[in-house]
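Worked example

This section walks through a single chain of length 414. The input is the sequence exactly as stored; nothing has been trimmed or padded.
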Amino acid sequence: MFGIFSEIATTLKRNRLRTFLTGFSISWGIFMLIILLAAGNGLKNGVTSNFGDRAVNKITLWAGMTSIPYKGYPKWREIKFDQTDSIYLSTGLKQVDQVVPTFDLGGKTITRDKQSTTVSLSAVIPEFTKYNNVKIKNGRFINDIDIKEFRKVMVISDKDAPILFGQDDPIGKEVVCDQISYTVVGIHKASNRWQNEFYVPFSTLNAIYNPSGKLSQFTITVNGLKTAEENKSFNQEVKKTMARKHEFSPEDENAIYIWNMLEDYLQTMKIFNAISLFVWIVGIGTLIAGIVGVGNIMLITVRERTKEFGIQKALGAKPSKILSQVVLESLIITSIFGYIGMISGIILTEIINLGMTKYAVGQTEEFAIFKNPTVDLGIAISATLVLIIAGVLAGYFPARRAVKIKPIEALRYE
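Given that input, the structure is written out below as tokens.
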């Protein structure tokens, strides 16, 4: 066995350029496959992360103004939702799981002593966290008792907490909005640098600022919708249902506005599945190019060594020994350079990922288009094994043909 490895080492040293070209084809094929797959994963992870922990099966309705006269009503009539819409939607549409009224007040100034910040006040119920990416860093969120007892409590953002309280712990302390005091019960993590929402119990904010009970927005969670076509059809059903209750034309595009997050999510996933397929096609094409390169080089190598094989056979070497030498040589080259290509690709993607992670430390989460550009280790190893096997076969078949040539013919072979 030592003699075989000694001969292989001598052959590789004697043909350094050929060895390098063979190895480079293998390394480059593996390296590019890993980089392409990592880039595809990074793009997909970045965009899908923007959905965060939000429930994707939610639909938001905004009230608008009619643009078409209908049943004696003039156009430009303002549509206003109210609490009865919750019952109307939940009983009229079987797919509806929950209807959550939403009431927001923008541009509200919150003060504490001499410090102040301008925020958006959102009237919420405890279920709000189920369909929105609200992460509590300290304290708690609005609960059922807050709603029932009309408590004047507030959940503030971690971006505004230092502005109002400095280094002090805000929990249990008072803030003021429109001369009304609220007790801070929780601090939530702002999902981006522009978010400055403060949360107040729905019952409390509605009683203070909206005694008429008119609402401009609803959020619906739904079940059983799995395709984009089903969601599109459901949007139309929602519009028809609301058109019957508020008496506007179902064809009126401005009466209400609907945002179906699940429909957007499904479309996004469809796009990225197509991107993933494209990346795989390009990556496999690159891998095949590497295999073809290895095959061509090994074919040339065997043809150049045919005379050498003839001499070995004339000296009494068995064809199986010559064949095993060529196969082992191919295995060594493909294994070493395949491993180098795999490790290089993995290291580069991990360095990029580490750099992006360190940059993100201390930063607020914003809309991302690229995140965690890494590739599954199993895929990388599998691709390397495929290329190694292809390299071995690329050396085996021409070598098998060469060792079948008679020694006298092999010695005359050019």
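What to look for: The two ends are 30 Å apart (CA to CA).
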